[in-house]
Amino acid sequence: MHIIETEFPDFGLTPEQRREAVLGHYYEIPGMDGARGEIWCYTDAYAYPPGATVNLHVSATASRYRLEIVRDGATETPVLSQDGLAAAWQDTPDQCSVIGCGWSVSHAFRISEDWPSGAYRITLTAEGRDGNPVTCHHVFIVRPLAGRKPGRVLQVAATGTWTAYNTWGGSNHYQGITGPGRNQYAPMVSTERPFCRGFAVLPENAPRVPLEIYTPPAAPPRYPHMEWAYANGYSKKYASAGWASYDSHFFRWAERAGYAVDLASQHELHFTPEILDGYDCVVFVGHDEYWTWEMRDAVDAYVENGGRAARFAGNFMWQTRLEDDGKKQVCYKYRARAEDPVYQSEDKRRTSGCWEAEETGRPAARTFGLNALRGLYVGWGGCAPRGVRGFPVYRPEHWAFAGTGIYYGDLLGADGHAFGYEVDGLDYVIRGGLPEPTEDSGAPEGLEILALGMSSLKEESADIPADDQFLSDADAKFVAETLVGNQSDEAVNRIKRGSGMIVNFPRGRGEVFHAGSCEWVAALKRGDAMVERVTSNVLDRYLSR
Ligand SMILES: [Fe+2]
Predict the structure, then answer these.
(1) CA separation for the pair 81, 84 (Å, rounded)
(2) What separation in Å is there between the alpha carbon of 85 and the centre of ligand 1?
(3) Which of 117, 281, 357, 375 suits a disulfide with 424, CB 3.0-4.6 Å?
């Protein structure tokens, strides 16, 4: 038995503080650390080719700082260290989350040609006003050059989701200080700002979103990750997105397992899709929620032409647009029909709402076989908090499960808690003990459902007051509006029950494998042997090893 703990820690917070941790809006802004002093930074791009120059934008209360960079792979490799660099405090506009910080360049350094593709973590350290050190972290990607890369995997970091969740400056695609009442989420967010605390690096004990504590009978939901964030000065969204919580775990695992992995950002899918052509296998992991039309075009064409895409990720949900050379990400989400100018224009397909919306007409399932609207939350809050921790397996004879010894009805990944937080699914029927996508599910031809667990679009208990729950019914109402055409209770009742699946299907000359869960990477991090084996089975087949 994995779960023995039933006592939730309080992280030193009072009940009122715990409530604020979950329902409040708190975020990083310049000056937040007051008398201690601060240092912050961002780079002028998410990803760079080898040989490029990185422009570093720094704002600090100190006049000197130290720069250290490590490559964050199977091992941590120091690549650059510079002392005594000059800094100054720079003014930051109030709406920096939306328009960018606009800081001038403080320092530039060159990426040496011998720095392998991967993620590079920046640490800046300066002396605080009280004499104690102040630090900040950032991460940038060294991407590969285009060209044939036999035997190598390309991992695409979910940078659209990082941008969407970044709380730095006060606004993201979830909560914000935009709008006349300074209380709206921002439909436009900038990449020209620091990452919030916990996106680049996290302590080992930082809770993940899915509960590792068994919720006692009739107890209201608890959200340890947000409570820990509030108590320890991390971003409210540290566990929802970012290199540290998600993408890093796959990258490190794959390198340790002996795979040669290159890393790119989603900007490359959008602006230089030819980068995919050199690879036999392209991988997407973690919490991967925001994509542009062009990014999907890139993957669809790649697979159609014989590429193999493996997605070990959840929450394929929203269409974004990029503006200003990719420095701004636009997603009106729930407000798209009311506010997105594209929805008012002739060609509405790029309206920044969900993929299943009539005006967009490009169901998410057409690219990766699953969508977020038929999946969603599991293993946290009031969404199946005591639900399965792994994928219930229906087709154990599938090649992906070879060597795992798994049986029909077994759970795959329960040891490593692979099933959770947000999962992707399809509408389905079960016949003779085997699930199949329904005819109007949007599933691609030839899709097989290998594993299937339950999820929920709504925190809903007959015994727990709605006030004690974090998730409103906004998601359920939105999905009802999109899939049924209205937000009535009857419509919500029709769509509120979701699933999370593992599926596999051929497409053109290529193939797609999709384990639709944000937490697959957590199971790799925790060394779950069956999840490791399935991941290797997929990579080996797709690399033709
Ligand atoms: Fe999400």
Answers:
(1) 10
(2) 38
(3) 375
Distance in Å, CA 405 to ligand 1 centroid: 32
What is the 478 CA–ligand 1 centroid distance (Å)?
A: 14
Question: Is the model's pTM score more than 0.85?
Answer: yes
Beta carbons within 8 Å of 308's beta carbon, 6+ residues apart: 280, 281, 282, 510, 511, 512, 513, 541, 542
| Angstrom distance (rounded) from CA 162 to CA 126 | 26
Amino acid letter, residue 398: H
pLDDT in tens, 447-480: 999 999 999 999 988 888 888 888 878 899 999 9
For 476-514, how does the pLDDT look when each residue is reduced to its tens digit (9 = 90+)?
A: 999 999 999 999 999 999 999 999 999 999 999 999 999
How many Å apart are CA 371 and CA 349, to the nearest integer? 18
Cα–Cα distances in Å, from 325 out to 62, 139, 267, 329? 32, 20, 9, 10
First to last CA, the chain: 36
Q: What is the pLDDT of residue 3?
A: 55
* Mean pLDDT, rounded, of the chain: 96
Q: How far is residue 85 CA from its own chain's centroid? A: 33
